[in-house]
Amino acid sequence: MDIDLSPEDQRRIDKLISSGRFTDASDAIHAGIEALEDDEAWRQYARERIARGLEDVKAGRVVPGDQVIERLRAARLKRA
Q1: pTM of structure
Q2: How many domains, the chain?
Q3: CA dist 17 to 2, 33, 78, Å?
């Protein structure tokens, strides 16, 4: 597969290789693809958690913020 890179992208890859972080362009591109996949997985996880949280709010399964702060303060004092 041939990939056309912009001069800027080529410079960035060359810099990564010359720094020793990657041995060649394929390694750098592979790491970039893995990072994109990890990012997408995290975004999906976050979307699911947000949806679950919104469902909890709609169902009334919430704790008032002042109670949460007090619980956190009490827990911190126990550890001190």
Answers
A1: 0.70
A2: 1
A3: 19, 16, 50
